[in-house]
Amino acid sequence: MVGGLVATVALPAYGAWRAPAEAAVTLQQVAADDAQSLVVASDATSQKLDRGSYSATTPEEIAKKKAQEAAAARARQLAAAAAAAAQSQSQTVYSMNLSMTAPGSGEVRWPVSGFTYASYNLFRAPGRPNHNGFDMVAPAGTPIFAAAAGVVRVSQESYNGYGVAVTIDSVVGGQPVSTLYGHMTYGSRQVVSGQTVAAGQLIGAVGSTGSSTANHLHFEVRVNGGLVDPLAWLQANAG
User: What is the pTM of this model?
Assistant: First the structure.
């Protein structure tokens, strides 16, 4: 009877007592505390990854990207150096007496006074089949004059293998004549393309630019578009 009395009194009280309810947990949170896991909320939205939104991560991709950056840097350096050289060259100015003119009064003048030459300088000399001009050897800075009046077609600091060169289109004796003056000194050109010049007008100075190994004027003459012997042409027409 005593035991029944105790059970009758105690059991209802025990049944009324309950452990406090635990907070709601996710399945991931049930995992060990030090587990490396990512809990994503149920209302999270997915987003498509864009290849351009992240950078290289593998060693191969990193090495490739570094090589590309190094190549780009070298290209920028070379471009900057070339631009600086071109600017320096274009700023070179050769001081000359602009009042100088070639001696003589004829329709054709000698482009250089006081020059020297040797047999190997002659037009189409043996061993030099591709040499289309006459080389007038003179000290650097010797004035160069237009052989005939005409219009400047080319005036450049770098013209093929001629280096600093000028070409002039003229009419001599009723025939179209083109004269070329090559290997002049940098910065010595006194004429520009499209300019009209007179016979004997100063156009530049002797130098050794382009495919040249010594100071001289490379002089070419074309009559009706065909090459002619420059020395013979000067001897027949200059005065």
Answer: 0.59
